Input
Amino acid sequence: MSKWIEKELDKLCCIEKGDQLNKLALEVSGTYPCINGGIEPSGYTEKYNRVEDTISISEGGNSCGYVNLMKQRFWAGGHCYTLKENSKLVDKIFLYCVLKYNQEKIMQLRVGSGLPNIQRNALAEYKIYYPEDIEEQKRIATVLTKTDELIEATQKLIDKQKNIKTGLMQTLLTCGIDDKGVIRSHKTHKFKDSELGQIPVEWECVELGAYSKSIADGDHMPPPKVEFGIPFVTISNVQNDSIDFSNTMYVSNDYFSSIDAKRKPQKGDVLYTVVASYGIPILMKSNRDFVFQRHIAIIRPKEDLKSEFLFYYLKSESVLNQAEDAAVGVAQRTISLTSLRAYKIVKPSLEEQNRIVTILQQQDQIIKDLESEKQKYIDIKKGLMADLLSGKVKVST
Output
């Protein structure tokens, strides 16, 4: 096993700062991305100042210290460092792996509060631990790169399945599936006009309020908080289609007991955000006591409107468009309960709702399984990086 040594970053590569490009010269699309202080490109241009396979490190902004390996030619902006490695001492991909593994530590080099940045000297003095044998560096890089390829390939499968789900939702929530298991089309089935456009003749177009037992919002005034008790959920606790209970505040059991029953979530309810980040539905899959603020509404559907079907329909293009029309205000756009109750939704038979939900849930499970597989590869890579980049484990030739 070769000797491992430690050297400052600027002893292994040339650290160069990019060139500022006028924002007016950037386009929303183009041949070459402009990389500045953020994770995503700040725009696109038709010229470049760095070639493909260049390591970049964000110099300024909230993402300063973010490490990336650019796979294409790009324009390095004024808030971007790029590295030109010394090929006699260090392998480029190995160096990228080390820097990415230490990304959080590099981010801690930031200074300033208004617009944080990483000074070149601080980055230059950051120490890199590596084996002297460049062939060993390449072997380590190969192992980690193959793991990256597995992660990227799985993400492509996830994106593909999400696109399939989007297509399924559009088809099933506008055409449905008949009692023979056939997805309807205008060529084979009868449709009728409605306020939502053409819908199957078997369906109804109804107002959400007419098929809900109740629609209510949460607390308009901040309730008194306690150290432990019933979780108080705010809009910041809404994560995608679920609620993150890990960092909620709490209210007392007595306060919870005083709340009207229609504002106490129960299994089968659908929560729906109505202020600021409006239009996000959350399906209550189990009973759990919590209180929520007025930024969230609670919909309790009637027995002939399946809550899972309503959850999916609230994510449909039709409802998204209605939400945009219903939201008012400037600082915080808000959907009133009156507007929410007036949402137009389709209502197939309960049996057809079940068929539609089953197909969409199966697709969700496929995506969930792939995301679990991706996380498994990410965890494997973390373990490999901890072992291989510390010199604890040697990669055999």
Q: What stands out?
A: The first strand starts at residue 4 and ends at 8. The CA atoms of residues 110 and 118 lie 5 Å apart. The mean pLDDT is 94. The domain at 204-347 is CATH 3.90.220.20 (Adenine-n6-DNA-methyltransferase TaqI; Chain A, domain 2).
